[in-house]
Design goal:
2 domains, 11 helices
Length: about 240
């Protein structure tokens, strides 16, 4: 099980400890104080309201005032949790993506080759995106917004963790003799990630994206990329036999 990475220093503005509170909620052994429970409750109400409204009305059709009303919080309270609509999208990303990462890690453990493990890792994302393409078109369009907010910092941590997960899959492939020992796992992980990111956004542009179509296209891209990687040395191939 992966340990939670140390978080970057955050500002002292209200809401800066939101993700520490969320981590406590996810930990079965952690206890929350009354103040923390109220904070987490408001965070959940706001993110759930944003999820519903962005899914139904789209990005341009949703206002901060409507989200505050849906979440049953004052507009000023909403501003303590998110700076603007873009910040709310990052908040949503930070809520919906970690469970998909958890499922992807579990799936990838059962795969026996690098292409299979990569597709197994990303398939939960395609399934979720196909179930709500309106929302995820918005989410994927905003995650590189460059904000230094609380949600932006968390977003960066999650994406770094994703790259680390892909690098682990590549190291496993190197150990299994699928790739050369000279392969740079982190660099290749970034290559796979950006292939995925471009492919999934193109796939989501379809009016009714189909999971099998998207993952088949992604597999073709991954296999083409893998074919261009340095082959394992004969020595490492013999060692496997």
């Amino acid at each position: 099980m992966k340990t939670i990475a140390p978080r970057p220093a955050l500002s002292n503005r209200p809401g800066a400890d939101l993700y520490e509170v969320r981590d406590k909620v996810r930990s079965a052994s952690a206890e929350l104080g009354l103040r923390e429970r109220h904070k987490f409750d408001k965070l959940e109400r706001i993110s759930n309201a944003a999820h519903r409204l962005f899914s139904r009305e789209g990005y341009e059709g949703t206002t901060l005032r409507e989200i505050a009303k849906e979440a049953e919080v004052a507009l000023g309270t909403l501003a303590l949790y998110a700076r603007d609509k873009r910040d709310l999208i990052l908040m949503l990303f930070n809520k919906v993506i970690p469970p998909l990462l958890d499922q992807g890690r579990k799936n990838a453990k059962l795969a026996t080759s690098l292409p299979d493990s990569m597709i197994a890792f990303f398939e939960p994302f395609y399934v979720a995106y196909a179930n709500n393409p309106t929302l995820y078109r918005i989410v994927l369009s905003q995650i590189y917004s460059g904000t230094s907010s609380v949600h932006g910092n968390e977003n960066n941590l999650i994406r770094k963790g994703l790259i680390d997960d892909l690098a682990d899959l590549i190291r496993r492939a190197v150990t299994a003799g699928e790739c050369s020992t000279g392969t740079d796992p982190t660099l290749q992980a970034k290559s796979f990630y950006f292939l995925y990111f471009a492919a999934v956004r193109a796939w989501l542009a379809d009016e009714s994206p189909v999971v099998k179509v998207g993952t088949a296209e992604l597999r073709a891209l991954f296999e083409h990329h893998i074919a261009g990687l340095p082959p394992p040395s004969r020595k490492s191939s013999k060692a496997r036999r």
